[in-house]
Amino acid sequence: MTTTTSTMHEIFERAHRVTPGGVNSPVRAFGSVGGDPRFIASARGPYVTDVEGREYVDLVMSWGPALLGHAAPEVVAAVQEAAARGLSFGAPTVAEVELAEAVRARVPAAEKVRFVSTGTEATMTAVRLARGATGRDLVVKFAGCYHGHVDALLADAGSGVATFGLPGSAGVTAASAAETIVVPYNDLAALEAVFAERGDDIAAVIAEASPANMGVVPPRPGFNAAIRRLTTEHRALFILDEVLTGFRVGPAGWWGLDGVARDGGVSATGSEAYTPDLFAFGKVVGGGMPLAGLGGRAALMDLLSPSGPVYQAGTLSGNPLATAAGLATLRLADDAVYARVDEAARVIGDAVGAALDAEGVPHRVQRAGNLFSVMFGETAARDGVHSYADAQAQDTFRHPPFFHAMLDAGVALPPSVFEAWFLSAAHDDAAVNRILEALPAAAQAAAAA
Ligand code: PMP
């Protein structure tokens, strides 16, 4: 099953001597699938190539940013041009203004935007801003949602915290944990109960726009709108975390599909319209460079320093190389790009389902726009997956053999069952066909588990 080779193994051992766990972000370590991670030498379009020269069709895509495919020539050129003019100034640039304008053009409710370097900083700042704006301390989050490694938001988090089966993190103070209330996802009655009890102390509810860090678990139609209603009633803020979904599932992210009314009054997902107070952005907005941001109503955003009392800063915030990559990416990400990503996701999602059906493996392909993931098990197949408890109850043991069979066939899936599969506009017929060809053997491996 394992594809370990000596070169890769040696590098991983060398990495272990100088880096905790041999990696700089936990899920990269193949902890839940076993074997040695691929050390990547280069990437282009839908492919990554490891240091041994082996090429894979990539379904990780840097965990989201590479919407256009890896190393899109126009994006690389924009970064090279920016690099030639200087790597970092610690002073404002026109490109930062242009990128904020580009974000606002797509998400008008993000009237003002502050750029930071990581999604973690974006959500951390959003929480601080919410506390500063309301004078309240409590934050409500949902089990299985991941918002970066912010102390207050690590309780019952998704992504690596879910992959490694952790309740949270060591090193988070009891005081910090006590200021976070965790509610089951998609459970409106539980959220209402929390507001009935503590409503006057709640600064904000933060939710992934459509969760994808416990696998893909979309909100029930109207769930985000209900969060909006409750938070408004209790004068708490609603922070919509679009770090993963923003500019990926559509031009205006999940909110564009879920929160914006079309003709007939309801949104594309069948929800009533809603507008959060704050958005967190990341990944695609930085085009593969370290850039993220938060946006919202002007009056609220103006509480940030230097115009307001809520402090926030960053040496590399709005970095010129990162803003160049983000701007080039957003300029290129037109309707045709989203149509291509949507279509590739539909074809591959359907094919995964058919391959697993053919082998009698009970499963559910969970979808949210062009994001999808596979949940194994009878219950998932019958009822779908609506919460972190549902996601944890799946047959996780089927994922490692499925993952390794795909890897052996030259397809790199996310190395955790709690992550979404990411596609790009560069996944052309050749790349998609390689995935389709790999699926039957992987489904057999999952069936044999
Ligand atoms: N929010 C969500 C929804 C995410 O998916 C992530 C990262 N996967 C983050 C926040 C944190 O972003 P970063 O890793 O850039 O800190």
From TrEMBL:
<comment type="subunit">
    <text>Homodimer.</text>
</comment>
<dbReference type="InterPro" id="IPR015424">
    <property type="entry name" value="PyrdxlP-dep_Trfase"/>
</dbReference>
<keyword id="KW-0663">Pyridoxal phosphate</keyword>
<dbReference type="InterPro" id="IPR015422">
    <property type="entry name" value="PyrdxlP-dep_Trfase_small"/>
</dbReference>
<dbReference type="GO" id="GO:0005737">
    <property type="term" value="C:cytoplasm"/>
</dbReference>
<dbReference type="GO" id="GO:0006782">
    <property type="term" value="P:protoporphyrinogen IX biosynthetic process"/>
</dbReference>
<keyword id="KW-0413">Isomerase</keyword>
<dbReference type="GO" id="GO:0008483">
    <property type="term" value="F:transaminase activity"/>
</dbReference>
<dbReference type="GO" id="GO:0042286">
    <property type="term" value="F:glutamate-1-semialdehyde 2,1-aminomutase activity"/>
</dbReference>
<dbReference type="InterPro" id="IPR004639">
    <property type="entry name" value="4pyrrol_synth_GluAld_NH2Trfase"/>
</dbReference>
<comment type="pathway">
    <text>Porphyrin-containing compound metabolism; protoporphyrin-IX biosynthesis; 5-aminolevulinate from L-glutamyl-tRNA(Glu): step 2/2.</text>
</comment>
<comment type="similarity">
    <text>Belongs to the class-III pyridoxal-phosphate-dependent aminotransferase family. HemL subfamily.</text>
</comment>
<dbReference type="Pfam" id="PF00202">
    <property type="entry name" value="Aminotran_3"/>
</dbReference>
<keyword id="KW-0627">Porphyrin biosynthesis</keyword>
<protein>
    <recommendedName>
        <fullName>Glutamate-1-semialdehyde 2,1-aminomutase</fullName>
        <ecNumber>5.4.3.8</ecNumber>
    </recommendedName>
</protein>
<keyword id="KW-0963">Cytoplasm</keyword>
<feature type="modified residue" description="N6-(pyridoxal phosphate)lysine">
    <location>
        <position position="283"/>
    </location>
</feature>
<dbReference type="InterPro" id="IPR015421">
    <property type="entry name" value="PyrdxlP-dep_Trfase_major"/>
</dbReference>
<dbReference type="GO" id="GO:0030170">
    <property type="term" value="F:pyridoxal phosphate binding"/>
</dbReference>
<dbReference type="InterPro" id="IPR005814">
    <property type="entry name" value="Aminotrans_3"/>
</dbReference>
